[in-house]
Design a protein that fits this description.
heterodimer, A: alpha/beta, seven-stranded antiparallel sheet, seven-stranded mixed sheet, B: alpha/beta, TIM Barrel, eight-stranded parallel sheet, four-stranded antiparallel sheet
């Protein structure tokens, strides 16, 4: 498929609120990007107010609302950039380029897809689940978080017709007690014909290995330190069976069978 | 006032304005073509190319530092045949001169890359990279001693009649001495600076932030060093200078020209602003208008000490 033209859009923050432990949801008015972004693609954001930090920050998109031209990002505060981001007030202007990269896509003939999202990685699978809900294929979604309070995407998934959701918490405060890999294993071994996974690299590796053992295709969303975000600088390469590929535009969604895990 | 005359001549390379891009930050331009027409530039400088292609270094390859960044890409490239087949074919449809950045593990490899391109009329000039800090053989190891600078440059000189730009490393004691060696061995122009060797550490994990431990520092943090070296080299040689290091605005470009640069390159700035190189062209033009400068060449070396 021909990729959409990249745009660098001056956007406006509509809202930016804490929604869980160290978790924030920012809504950005970005009509040119929100209207064409596909599930799993990301935006490269120049966070204002930190000019001595040169680089943009890549964020996968959680939800888009084409009618209101808004895209939302669920993010965890992990360092200086995300901390500054968490303090942006509504109406703040920022630059974002996008939509960047490959996207989640159901293989031809797949009828029972499984989506596995760990931590903040549950968010970038939402648009894919929405697409599968709208098309009538449906999906099983397994999401995991450390605690009940961190399961912030659960309600959104539960509202999608045709999507059955299983939640896991590390501390057992909600749903399955333990890592989400265990409920995921049940579905992989019990009839899923495609797996999409997003989360910490160790989670994706475990899920990719169980999918491979079951002979089920699996697509993962990779993350690397990134500079240009457009495929020029070769900072973000992922080791694959076919050599080093750029996480930004050859990914971020990779066929798990080609990824050489670190 | 009427339009500013923006064209310059960089050692035989005619440029419609003094602005190109720093090798390795812009690929061959296609990745930025959604953001602006690369034909607006004075030249496109392509990512360093070797004969057969290199895999580059392990990840992590970059680290953000105060007003700058470290990179340790390691000259990953698919080789000169792929450059011709893909990048030069795409660039040929643009109205912009092409400077090919040439890398090698040995003097022989530099020469063979030039020989593979010498009959290709889609190339307008070479930039010989004797300054990459991220490879074990070649790169900076050639650019930090006068005898090896002379050996590489004179071999490349024999292989081409095209404008030969030699890109220098700032990781030397006396940049003027290295520049004079390149000039006497046949360089038509000197470009500088490549990145400054540096490192970053994660105190919590007690590990280096780059897989290769050390890498090259770029961005606004290096601009004062780059300006100083451009100024020194401009005084030391008679060939023109292509200046770079932390340029992100037209005013930055003007400062480099006042220090003695005939042309300038935009590098790391493209990462934070994909339109940076085009904006530097416009910003330099606006500076000239504001200052009553009718010909951009009047800026070269016009620093008043």
């Amino acid at each position: 498929m021909e990729r959409a033209t990249l745009v660098d859009e001056t956007c406006s923050v509509r809202s930016n609120e804490q929604v869980g432990p160290n978790l924030f949801l920012i809504e950005i008015e970005a009509p040119r990007i929100a209207s064409v972004l596909l599930p799993g693609q990301f935006v490269h954001v120049k966070v204002p107010g930190m000019e001595s930090h040169l680089l943009r920050r890549p964020f996968s998109v959680y939800r888009t609302d084409a009618s209101s031209n808004v895209l939302s990002i669920l993010y965890q505060v992990v360092g200086f950039g995300t901390d500054v981001l968490s303090h942006l007030l509504p109406a703040t202007s920022l630059c974002a380029s996008g939509p960047i990269g490959s996207h989640w896509e159901l293989p031809d003939g797949s009828a029972s897809p499984l989506l596995v999202g760990g931590g903040v990685g549950a968010a970038p699978l939402y648009l894919f689940a929405q697409e599968l809900s709208n098309s009538g294929v449906g999906a099983t979604v397994v999401i995991g978080a450390q605690t009940k309070e961190a399961l912030v995407t659960l309600g959104a998934y539960e509202d999608l017709p045709g999507i059955s959701v299983v939640a896991a918490t590390d501390d057992g405060t909600f749903g399955y007690a333990g890592f989400c890999t265990e409920p995921a294993r049940t579905f992989v071994e019990d009839g899923a014909d495609f797996v999409a996974c997003c989360g910490p690299e160790m989670l994706m590796r475990i899920v990719a290995e169980m999918a491979a053992r079951a002979g089920v295709p699996c697509a993962v969303s990779m993350e690397r330190r990134m500079a240009c975000g457009v495929g020029a600088c070769l900072s973000c390469v992922v080791d694959t069976a076919d050599g080093k590929k750029r996480c930004c535009i050859d990914g971020p969604i990779f066929d798990a069978r080609e990824v050489v895990w670190q | 006032m009427s339009d500013v005359s923006m064209s310059v001549n960089l050692g035989g390379l005619s440029m419609k304005n003094p602005v190109t891009v720093a090798s390795g930050t812009f690929a061959a331009g296609r990745e930025y073509s959604d953001f602006f027409d690369v034909s607006l530039l004075g030249a496109v400088t392509t990512k360093g190319v070797s004969l057969k292609g290199w895999e580059g270094n392990d990840s992590p390859r970059i680290a953000e530092t105060a007003s700058g960044m470290l990179n340790s890409i390691g000259l990953q490239n698919p080789g000169v045949a792929a450059l011709r087949e893909k990048d030069l074919a795409w660039l040929a449809r643009k109205d912009v001169p092409v400077i090919v950045n040439v890398s090698g593990h040995s003097i022989q490899e530099y020469v063979e890359v030039i020989e593979a391109l010498e009959e290709d009329d889609r190339v307008n000039a070479y930039e010989v990279n004797i300054s990459c800090p991220n490879v074990d053989e070649g790169g900076m190891t050639f650019g930090t001693h006068v005898p090896s600078v002379e050996a590489v440059v004179s071999s490349c000189r024999t292989a081409t009649k095209r404008p030969l730009i030699v890109k220098l490393s700032p990781n030397v004691t006396d940049i003027a001495e290295i520049a004079r060696a390149a000039e006497s061995a046949g360089a038509d122009a000197i470009s500088l600076i490549n990145t400054l060797l540096g490192m970053a550490i994660d105190a919590r994990t007690r590990k280096p932030q780059l897989a290769r431990v050390v890498g090259g520092l770029s961005g606004p943090a290096v601009k004062p060093v780059a300006l100083r070296m451009v100024w020194q080299v401009h005084q030391a040689v008679s060939v023109p200078v292509l200046g770079m290091g932390g340029i992100s605005t037209g005013i930055d470009a003007a400062e480099f020209m006042l220090a003695g640069a005939t042309a300038v390159a935009v590098g790391t700035a493209s990462f934070s602003n994909p339109r940076a190189a085009a904006e530097v062209v416009e910003g330099l033009r606006a500076y000239c208008k504001e200052q009553g400068v009718s010909d951009v060449n009047d800026l070269i070396g016009a620093l008043q000490c």
